[in-house]
Amino acid sequence: MSYSNRNNHEIDYTIFGEELQFVEVELDPQETAIAESGAMMMMDDGIEMQTIFGDGSAQAPTGFFGKLVSAGKRVLTGESLFMTAFTNIGHGKKKISFAAPYTGKIIPMDLQQLGGTIIAQKDAFLCAAKGVSVGIHFQRKLGVGIFGGEGFIMQKIEGDGMAFLHAGGFIVERELKQGEVLKIDTGCVVGYTPQTQFDIEFVKGVKNFMFGGEGLFFAKLQGPGKVWIQSLPISRLAGRIVAYGTYKRKEEGSVLGGLGNLFDGRE
Prior knowledge:
- By secondary structure, the protein is of the alpha+beta class.
- It has two domains: 12-232, Double-stranded beta-helix (4-Layer Sandwich), CATH 3.60.160; 243-267, no CATH class.
- Helices cover 16% and strands 40% of the residues.
- It is built from five helices and 19 strands.
- The protein has helices at 64-76, 142-147, 206-211, 234-246, 259-263, and strands at 12-16, 22-27, 32-36, 40-43, 47-53, 82-88, 94-99, 104-110, 117-120, 125-129, 133-138, 153-158, 162-168, 171-176, 181-185, 189-192, 197-202, 217-222, 225-230.
- The strands form four sheets. It has a six-stranded antiparallel β-sheet.
- Strand 1 and strand 2 form a beta hairpin.
- The longest helix has 13 residues, at 64-76.
């Protein structure tokens, strides 16, 4: 596939770090990157920052009302009304870095290679080349919308440039062949290509869904297509932190101090 004829801005990048990563994007003069508000970590002098409604893509509606509706849709996917565009207004190459919001991995996606569209979990988008559209995708199947882990609304990322997603823990990319089925914990689905069929499957066996700890449903993805899976959904991490924070540990006000935790297995 040819990579020379792109409608979106063509950017170079480097990803740094292991568990808490950031992506450094290199911009030629007049090239622009877009990002979620608050994602910027650092940038060279000569890069101009502009807050915009929506994503600034060619697909974005014209006029104030159209832009407001487009930006409002982004709120439904867990993002803010505004995005930020960073443009190199200098004469040489400039660099800007965007940081991951929590521990995990940044996933670079060349949309030209991936057929132009990715369906992703809400709030997965981090940054992209200007021209990439960050829109909304509705789950049409009732069961998937209610029990699929991400609800009825997901992000649709379209274009032919580079886009960067972020997800928790370690990221696995799977290429599913025609008819191949993969069952995943509903919270572990990061994204997939549109030709992949996404459904849910009820966990069989009363003991399994009552005591198995995996919930009532699996996400069922059927090929052909690509699927990205995260090992640590942020909801699972947050749940563990809340549970840990609300548990009264033995050393808190106990004469035994830390010894109490050794007896009950908390150390």
